[in-house]
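Take a look at this chain, tokens included, and explain the fold to me:
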Amino acid sequence: MLELVFHEMNQSVCAFVGILFAYGLTCILLHCCGGLLPRDGGRDFAVDGKLSQGKPRGAGFVFILIFAVATILFLPFNRERVIYVILTVAAMLTGFLDDCSKSPWGEYKKGILDLIISVMVAITYINFNGTALSIAFLDTQIVLPKIIFGILATVLVWVSINVTNCADGVDGLSATLTSVSLMSFYFTADSTGLTEDYRYMSLLLVACLLGYLWYNATPSRMMMGDAGSRAMGLVIAIMALKSGHALLYIPFAIVLILDGGLGLLKVALLRFLKIRILKNTRTPLHDHVRKNLGWSNTQTVFKFAIMQIVVAFATAWLIR
């Protein structure tokens, strides 16, 4: 019994150190090395896009690498989780190379790279976990054919990567919403199938994001760039899959979906089907509320976060 108590204490101390490691190292490296990151050129199409011109961009390269290192160091070795970490770093690198590029990568190039990563996540998940899908609201579980589950999982991951990326346009917004989404999966783990290791993995990323937000709160000193936003979206999707309740991605990331996803839907319908929707609504929605409703950056972050927290609380109560 005494050995068990000491073992649990050692695990708790290790977890405590890991979270401090992730947060502290993120703060230190961003402070010391932020000036080495590529500089943002500003965006003509975004509200207040020119205000970001000249700021360090690509901070995601730093905090995602720290997240990867912390996950490897402070969690037991697990092949499935190592693959997810590698794919998260891959998503970060594709974004960082775009951040460093003098001319932005095309939408199709980035979309294909995201699709490749999404397919690899889906294959990995099916290989280690099977194709069962739990539906919390109906208290039931269904087993889908591999090809169907694989397609759905790929779509989930691809959408998560891209809506999170599109929601990154206001100081502190994307990282704050991602933190709320990850903590939603953390606090509902007892009602889903998210294991302790993945709960802790989500905490490590949140710790890194809090270290980054120290420098990204309005007025920001640096930005995460695609290096951070794409990798964050990938991790949210992984947590949704590993919870066994992939559909919980919708309520736990609903503000990210609406903010970033409506713009993707609007452009896709216009480009491929010549259908116009939301003619009087700017997308992403964070541009609409700032330009049309007069919200400040701080109001946008707080109000969007409040909406996400309320939906998460309501969902957690429903599935308890």
